[in-house]
Write a structure and sequence with these properties.
By secondary structure, the protein is α+β, with helices and mostly antiparallel strands. It has one domain. The chain is built from 3 helices and 10 strands.
Amino acid sequence: MFPSRIILSRKGYDQASGGCPSPIFQDGTMFSIPIPENNKHTVPKGHTRFEDLEKQGEYCLPRELVTSSRPGRTFAGPVHLDPDIRPGLRPKLFSAVCGSSFIFGQDGGPQTHLVNQGVREGDLFLFFGLFRWAMLRDGVAYFQRPERKMHVIWGWLQIGEIYPIPRLSGKSNALISQPT
């Protein structure tokens, strides 16, 4: 399906959300670090946590990258997987329901903005974020200096279906999935 419009959407760690760029490793592998979950949201048991990012095989993220670039920054607690386009990071509870679908969810003001802009099935989201080259040395990850930070497109999702989800607060939200 040819997209009717292309939407750029900033996602993942950056100076404002998280405090450091996401890594691009020597082999070109990119890992967009998910932002911390909003403290206002209650998360179910089994929700993906920063600690889980170190245990996901090909999605493994060394803790040192986050803690060394921002002293005092913790690498613990629930993360916000949005967009959820890496099923390997998804909690098992959601894997059973969502399968291998890619999901992008919005609520409140951001969802209202998408509705007001007429975002619909077939539109293409390009996800970009702040990145920096990183390297592994003796099992420890480091950001390469003096490499500059850069904005990079790291993922995409073309809207297959939009699922409106009513909320008790009266705000709208929606999950968007890729075409099948």
